[in-house]
Design a protein that fits this description.
Blueprint: E1 6-9, E2 19-20, E3 23-27, E4 67-68, E5 74-78, E6 85-87, E7 90-91, H1 93-109, E8 115-124, E9 134-144, E10 147-156, E11 161-171
Antiparallel strand pairs: 1-3, 2-3, 4-5, 5-9, 6-7, 8-11, 9-10, 10-11
């Protein structure tokens, strides 16, 4: 029999205890409540001056300045430097993903909700060249209780979309925004 802190698991899993009826006892992994840190204190998702993407005090950051539009959309202009390249002349996809995530995060925050990215998907339509200027746009597309869906795009000055992102955000339990 397994202890209260263990569960029955197939033998191929990590063994913590003894064998019981053809299965083993494995350590029970208790999921943490979203929005609560390891000490039990509430997490916060608020802008801060050292943010890698938008923080103006971060000497290693991107320092992108987002603006909120009347329609709830967030926008910014960005000219990526060559230090953000993965391949010569091409901005690293992880940096592009981060910028799009931030645009969506700003749009979510504009609703008065503190939320964390739960899932992120990015489609790279064209390469993002360093030294070129791009428009970043983010918006909330829907909300269902604590789940918030958002989209962001990276558009070149000629109007061609280079990357498109979709994300699901999870509102922290202690915050309340406009539904």
């Amino acid at each position: 029999m397994c202890s209260p802190n263990e569960i029955m698991a197939p033998k191929r899993e990590v063994i913590v205890g003894g064998v019981a009826g053809g299965a083993t006892c494995a350590a029970r992994v208790m999921p943490r409540r979203v929005g609560i840190d390891e000490s039990g204190s509430p997490l916060h998702a608020r802008s801060q001056p050292d943010c890698f993407v938008c923080g103006q005090n971060n000497p290693h950051g991107l320092r992108i300045r987002f603006e909120r539009r009347d329609n709830g959309e967030t926008t910014a202009s960005w000219t990526p430097d060559s230090v953000w390249e993965g391949f010569r002349g091409i901005v690293h996809g992880g940096v592009v993903s981060t910028v799009l995530d931030e645009a969506m995060s700003k749009a979510v925050a504009a609703t008065g909700t503190e939320a964390l990215t739960a899932e992120l998907r990015v489609r790279f339509r064209r390469h993002v060249a360093s030294g070129e200027t791009f428009l970043i746009r983010g918006r909330v597309s829907s909300r269902n209780k604590r789940l918030i869906e958002a989209e962001a795009v990276l558009i070149a000055t000629d109007g061609i979309e280079h990357a498109h992102a979709w994300a699901t955000f999870l509102a922290l339990a202690h915050t309340s925004g406009k539904p």
